[in-house]
Structure formats: structure tokens, C-alpha cells
Amino acid sequence: MSFEEFQNQARLYVIGALERDETEEFEEARKEFGESADRFIAQCYDLHEAFALSLQPKKSSEALKQRLMSMVRERKS
Amino acid sequence: MIGSGTQEPASEEEPVASALRVSPVEGPSDLELMQGIQDEKPEALELLYDRYNGIVKALILRVIHNEAEAEDLLQEIFMEIWNQAKNFSAAKGKPLGWMVTLARRRAIDGLRKKQAYLRAGERLQNETEQQPNAWVHNTTEDEISFGDTRVLVRKVINTLPEAQQQAIDLAFFRGLSQREIAAKTNTPLGTVKTRLELGLKKLYDGLKEVRDEL
């Protein structure tokens, strides 16, 4: 697998779109390309952030926040 | 494989979403808040929640399409952020990216666990037929504005052909594999692969360019 092919596969990998056999091949290539591969994959994960930012935020209820914070403080104490 | 020539890995100074900061906010940075959560300071989680609950909830809703379940899952996800914060490493990515990855996984897992996957798929089929550009045109009045960032991200997404948008949407927001997308859309597997590869590459490159516009 060339690095260009690896890059194409990496973008599919981070969104979970690779099939099992492709994932195995991808993991082999990842080892082969070493740090460059890991650095590129980390950058591909930024796509996740971008996808989320493409959506209109939806307000959640104040009650939910209060419940969450109550649970967090309980767990801490 | 599709591409326009071998590229070296982008440098660390060129992350795709480096410019895609929501950050209209004042106060501590996301990273400082994550450090606060790692130090078990509830007020840090509260600030992070205030900043991003809307984005995380929108993501969950995009996956499971159920308001009550989305609220439950949102609570679980922020509890997981609290519990798993020690696993966050700034060296591996940014706080929002980490949260989104975690939220997406939980939402897709939730969808599968309740065994509504097939029903959701049918809903998606109808939804897709009725509203092919749902991903980029899902505005409602009761939404919070995050300024130019979303507009710029959407601008990039809108440059993709509809079929590529749909393939990416099904993969990212539904967790479908290429074969599942092919089956769902009655499209040859090779075509799905091409759509995903081309679409994701265009998005990746386009989002880099967005950085220069901010």
C-alpha cells in the first residue's frame, strides 16, 4: 500500500467505514509507515469535530444539567 | 485508489480543524477545562457542558432521532467524560474531537443495543428520500448560533455532490460499513468506496482551506 492509499484508507478508518479485511490490511500499513501514519490518523480524527460542528446545536434542558452536576458532585464526595 | 499523487503527511502545524474552533467564549480554554476535569473539579465539567452540550446533543440526535433518549445519552456521555478524562491526552487530539468521538461511539452503540437498528434504517431511508440534504439543511428556530464556524464547515460540505454527502452521512452518523451503505442505497460497493474516498478527501482538503478564511 502506498502512502497515498494509506491516507485514503485512514479517512475511512476514522469514521469506521473500513471492512474487517481492509482494517487488517490498514493496520499492517500503519505499522509499516510508523509515526507518519499515526500523525496522519490523528489529523483525520479532526474530521469528527468538523462533522459535529456542521450540525445546528440543540439545547438540552436545565434539569439535565442539574442532574448531571448532582451526580458528579455525589461521585466526588 | 483515488487521489492526486502521493502526499507527505501534513505537518503538525496543519491540523484539519485547527481553525474550526467554536471558541466565541471567554474564560478557560477547552484544554484547561479538561485539565480541571482530570483534577476532579466539577466546575470545569460544568463549563465544558455549558460550552458543548448543544453540539454533543445535536450529534446524538443525528444518530438516534429521539429527544428523550438523546437527553439520557447526553447525561451518560458527560458522566463518561468525567470518569474517563484521565484517558484524554492533548498529544493525541483536541478536547472537542475527543468528546465527539466518544459521543458518536456511544450514540451508535446505543442505537444498536436497543435493537432499533433496522427500524432506524427504515426511518433513514424515508428521511433520505424526503430530505436528501438533511445533513446540511437541518436548521430549526430553537437553535444556538455558533457563528461562522458552522457556516464555513457547511460551505465545504456543500461542495460535495449529494451522493458523496449521503455516503459520508451514513458512515459517520449511522456507523454503517461500506457494504451496509451499498445495501442501504442499492449502490454497487465499488461506487460507495469511491464516493467515500473522494468525499472524505475533498472534505479533509477543504477544511484545511477553511483555516485560512478564519
3D architecture notes:
The complex is a heterodimer of chains A (77) and B (214). With 77 residues, chain A is mainly α. Chain A has helices spanning 3-14, 20-44, 46-53, 62-76. Chain A is elongated and about 50 Å long. Chain A starts with a helix and ends with a helix. The model of chain A has no long low-confidence stretch (mean pLDDT 90). With 214 residues, chain B is mainly α. Chain B has nine helices and no strands. Chain B has helices at residues 30-38, 42-64, 67-84, 95-113, 117-130, 148-158, 162-174, 178-185, 189-213. The model of chain B is unreliable at 1-19, 130-134 and 136-145 (pLDDT under 50). Classes of the chains: A mainly alpha (77), B mainly alpha (214). Chains A and B meet through α1, α2, α3 and α4 of A and α2, α3, α4, α6 and α7 of B.
Please state the overall shape of chain B, judged from the principal axes of the Cα atoms.
globular
Number of helices of chain A: 4
Task: Please report the distance between the alpha carbons of the first and last residues of chain A.
Answer: 53 Å
Radius of gyration of chain A: 19 Å
Q: Note poorly predicted spans of chain B.
A: 1-19, 130-134, 136-145
> Cα-atom Rg of chain B, whole angstroms?
18 Å
Summarize the biggest pleated sheet of chain B: none
Q: Residue share in helices of chain B?
A: 55-70%
Mean pLDDT of chain B: 78
Q: The biggest beta sheet of chain A, please?
A: none
**Which regions of chain A are unreliable across 5 or more consecutive residues at pLDDT < 50?**
none
Question: Which structural category do the helix and sheet elements of chain B fall into?
Answer: mainly alpha
Largest interface: A-B, 47 and 80 residues
Instruction: Tell me the number of strands of chain A.
Output: 0
**Distance N terminus to C terminus of chain B?**
32 Å
Q: Beta-sheet strand percentage of chain A?
A: under 5%
**Share of helix of chain A, binned:** over 70%
